[in-house]
Amino acid sequence: MRETYSRGVSNLELDPQEIRCAAEAGDREVLMGREVPLGGPRAMSVSRTLPGVHRRMIGAWCFVDAYGPDEAAMRVPPHPHTGLQTVSWLLEGSVLHRDSLGTLQEIRPGQLNLMTAGRGISHSEESPKTVLHGVQLWVALPGGSRHVEPGFEHHPALPVLPGPGFEARVVMGSLGGVSSPATAYSPLVGAEIAVDGACEVPVERGFEHGLLLIDGEVAELERGPMVYLPPGRSGLRLSGRGRVLLIGGEPFGEEIVMWWNFVGRSHDEIAAYRKEWMEGEGFGVVDGYDGAPLPAPALPGTRLKPRGRVR
User: What's the pLDDT at 15?
Assistant: First the structure.
């Protein structure tokens, strides 16, 4: 029997809850991930650390799924997005992206696929059965940019910040004066840090940050949970040998509604997005995918409310 697995580029939960985004307390928080099986009983599970029970965002980052390494086939049917960017980052394997703009693009480890949903886009992702290991992230677009034209970027090579005991590949935003070519709509950072010994990685003092161990051993981290650090640091001290995902940014000051694959500002807006998708309007068509689009789940019985970045 063919195994299929669908990851965080789409939230495939059949009964998605409203994701309430809302203030940091203390010097360090451990954000425990929850295991989410995607794609059926034989599917891989992902560890979802954002949104969490209490903390819903880190900067503009609002969704983090880590998966693998595990052998699986991916088949994510066409589905919609609004008001966000999807950031696909692989450590192992390959994935084929299609979208309603006509894009057909494979991504491999060390490369970035960045899709800006803006006012609305649809896409699919698939791969043959292979070992898959990576992270899927979403970035919420600020109010002034959330209705931009949809777009897609593929960056096969990304700049590197070297330092004593570390090498950081800058995926989004800027780190230590090194900037990614990827389009960002708010002050933020996303980077893969290869740690080799003891090091201190420079960061923006005004950013809040999240650290997720994705490979190897780093003394300050363990596999699974994400560590949240509030603003006020100019450097991150790490030691060991492994790879760490760093995300961060200026604390996101807007309240949002995040439900299924949509980011909006009100219940009525989310309901309108859902209606458009189900009626085949507003999100274009993904050509070349062999299968039907993903239907939207039913809205909850209570009205969705805009929330801040922590509960």
Answer: 54
Is 203:174 a contact under the CB 8 Å cutoff? no
Q: Is 78 in contact with 122 (CB distance < 8 Å)?
A: yes
Query: What pTM did the predictor assign?
Result: 0.90
Instruction: Say if 150 falls within a structural domain.
Output: yes
Give the pair of three-digit tokens for residue 134.
């990576």
pLDDT value at residue 2: 30
126 located within any domain = yes
CB 90 within 8 A of CB 111: yes
**Does any domain span residue 1?**
no
Instruction: Read off the pLDDT of residues 150-190 as tens digits, 9 standing for 90 and up.
Output: 999 999 999 999 999 999 999 999 999 999 999 999 999 99
Tell me the C-alpha to C-alpha distance, in Å, between residue 262 and each of 9, 63, 118: 12, 12, 10
Q: Looking at residue 55, which CATH number applies to its domain? A: 2.60.120.10
49 domain residue, yes or no: yes
pLDDT of res. 28: 87
* Domain count across the chain: 1
At 28, list the tokens: 């360090």
| Res 72 pLDDT > 80 | yes
3-state secondary structure of 267: helix
The parent domain of residue 227 ranges over 19-249
Asked whether 168 and 132 are in contact (CB, 8 A), the reply is no
